[in-house]
Amino acid sequence: MKDGNAAAGLTRRQRYEAAQRKRSILIAAASTLLVGLAIFILVPLTPGWDRVKRSFFDIDTLVETFPRLLDAFTINVMIFLWSAPAIAILGLLIALARDTRSPALFPLRIFGAAFTDVFRGIPVILTVYLIGFGIPGLGLPRPWNSPYIWGSLALILTYSAYVAEIFRSGIDSVHHSQRSAALSLGLTERQVTRYVVLPQAIRNVVPAQMNMLIALQKDVSLLSFIGPVEIFRQAGVFKSLLANFTPYVGAAIIFLMVTIPATRYADYLMAKQRQERR
User: Fold this and answer.
1) Fewest C-beta in 10 Å: which of 58, 131, 177, 255?
2) Closest-CA residue to 213 (of 117, 96, 80)
3) How large is the greatest C-alpha to C-alpha distance in the chain, in angstroms?
4) pTM exceeds 0.90
């Protein structure tokens, strides 16, 4: 009776929208189930499935190598943890340099533009090779020839260019009237940027920056090409020792355990932001 009263309190439009949502959920669930069943039934029928199963989905190999892969993943996490704050700081500074309006600071705008053009134009792996092999080639003493340092620097420089552009889009999203109103109240340009523009700009770009963090976590594996034994290289070692590709599947599972929750959280932030704008 209570549900009937609640339904009776809905408008015709609301009842129609509720019915459409229920219908969409049912169709999505049915189509997902059909696709899953098709994959589950048809893939094992392919001629080479037995070989693929032994090479990529060997449970014994996965159980044997998974703990060591988790240990190697801590290297990825460490590189990520010291690179992410540096990327955020450098990216924000580059964005502010490109947004500066003082004629005396025009060289900073040129530098910011050149920085983003160069490091967005060069592939990440090429930057890792150039910095990771080039700088230690100068003959620096330990620990300054460490691939951990220069590989991290390559990631920091590359990702700062992208993060700077995201910050700059957030700064541009703040309406110019707010800047003008703050200036009319007697605030300086620096105070307007610090207290009016940046708080709104940073909040606006949080979802996009979350996606950059997810990409950074994955691209840390590129440093394996210059020496660090992180999860990707450790999986390669196991592949060579065991003549089996299952360790790569184990590495993929570990990445998914981290990136899927982070991706869902980024989607939640974006949905929340859209809701607030409405």
Assistant:
1) 177
2) 80
3) 82
4) no
